[in-house]
Write a structure and sequence with these properties.
Length: about 300
C-alpha cells in the first residue's frame, strides 16, 4: 500500500476558508481531521481506499476534481464512507464515487451508509453512491438535498432482517431529490419514514428497486412526487406490499405528471394503505400520471383522490 501523503494546503482569504488539494495516496480520514470547519477538499482523480469514516465538519466541501469527467472513487471497509455528525450542518459532497460501507447487526441501522449521519442541510450533488450494504445516503438531519446523482445497488438481505432500513436513500427527516437516477437497490429506492416532514422527488428515474421506487410512510408531509419515471420496481417476493410508489399511514401527498410501467407482480403504480398506525391516510392526490397499464390501489379510501390518470 502506498505511504500516506500529506495533503497540500493552499491558504486563501479567511472569508473563503482553506482549500486542500488531495491526491491518491493521501489518507482521507486523517486529512479530514487536520483542518477546521469550512474547508474545501479538492479530491483529484483516482482511487482512494479508506479504513475509517471520513468525518465531515460544518460547511466542508468534498469535491471531486477530474478533467475527463470521471468521478474520483472513494471506497471503504468501514461502516461509513462519509460521516456527517450533528454539528456538521451545510456540508457538501460533490462529484465523487462512493462505495463499500459495511453493515452488521450490532450497529444497525446506523451503519452501512455511503454518506450519512445526523448533520442538517447536507448537499449531495453529482455523486454516485453504490454497493453500500445498507444505504447510499441515509440517517441525515433535516434539509438533505440530492441533485444530479446516482444511487444504485445499495442495501442487502441482512439490512432487512432486523431493523429494516435498506434503501438508495432513507431518512426520518426532510429531504428532496432532483434529477437523479435511483435504481437496483435491494429494498426501497427513496424512503421517508416516521415523520420526515417535507419529502420531495422530482424529475428523476426510479427503476428496478426491490420493494418500492418511492416509499412514504408514517408521515404528515407534505410530500410531492412529480415528473419522475418510475418503472420496474417491486419485484422482490419477500415483501407483500410493493410497487412504484407506496403511501402507507401518511397524509398530505401529491403525485402528478409521473410515468409508470411494469411495477411489481400486480403492476401497481401507486399503492395507498392504512394499517394500525397513525396518521390515517388523508389528503392524497394522484393525478395526471401516465400509467402504461399499471394500476392504483387505495383510491377508494376517504380523503384520497385519483383523477386524470391515463
Amino acid at each position: 500500500m502506498a505511504r500516506e501523503r500529506v495533503a497540500t494546503l493552499r491558504q486563501v482569504p479567511p472569508s473563503e476558508g482553506n482549500v486542500v488539494e488531495v491526491y491518491p495516496g493521501d489518507g482521507l480520514a486523517a486529512v479530514a481531521t487536520r483542518y477546521g470547519a469550512g474547508t474545501t477538499f479538492n479530491v483529484h482523480g483516482g482511487d482512494y481506499l479508506v479504513s475509517a469514516p471520513i468525518v465531515v465538519s460544518r460547511g466542508d466541501v468534498w469535491k471531486g476534481i477530474d478533467p475527463d469527467g470521471t468521478r474520483p472513487c472513494v471506497r471503504t471497509t468501514a461502516k461509513y464512507v462519509f460521516f456527517v455528525p450533528a454539528e456538521a450542518d451545510y456540508a457538501t459532497v460533490r462529484g465523487l464515487d462512493v462505495s463499500g460501507a459495511v453493515h452488521d447487526d450490532r450497529c444497525e441501522p446506523d451503519c452501512g451508509r455511503g454518506i450519512g449521519g445526523p448533520g442538517s442541510n447536507l448537499l449531495v450533488a453529482n455523486v454516485r453512491s453504490h454497493h453500500n450494504e445498507n444505504q447510499g445516503v441515509g440517517g441525515t438531519g433535516p434539509g438533505l438535498v440530492i441533485r444530479n446523482s446516482e444511487l444504485d445497488h445499495n442495501g442487502s438481505y441482512d439490512a432487512t432482517t432486523g431493523k429494516v432500513s435498506a434503501a438508495g436513500v432513507k431518512a426520518v427527516n426532510s429531504y428532496s431529490v432532483f434529477n437523479s437516477y435511483i435504481h437496483n437497490n435491494y429494498w426501497d429506492g427513496a424512503w421517508c419514514d416516521i415523520e420526515c416532514e417535507r419529502f420531495e422527488v422530482h424529475d428523476s428515474h426510479v427503476e428496478y428497486n426491490g420493494k418500492a421506487g418511492i416509499h412514504y410512510e408514517i408521515s404528515t408531509g407534505p410530500a410531492v412526487f412529480e415528473g419522475n419515471t418510475i418503472t420496474g420496481n417491486g419485484y422482490i417476493i419477500r415483501s407483500t406490499r410493493r410497487g412504484g410508489i407506496l403511501i402507507v399511514d401518511s397524509s398530505n401527498a401529491r403525485v402528478y405528471a409521473n410515468t409508470f410501467g411494469n411495477n411489481g407482480f400486480y403492476q401497481r403504480a401507486v399503492e395507498i394503505a392504512n394499517t394500525s398506525r397513525a396518521p390515517a391516510v388523508s389528503w392524497v392526490f394522484i393525478r395526471d400520471n401516465t400509467l402504461n397499464y399499471d394500476e392504483h390501489m387505495g383510491c377508494n379510501l376517504p380523503n384520497v383522490s385519483c383523477s386524470h390518470n391515463r
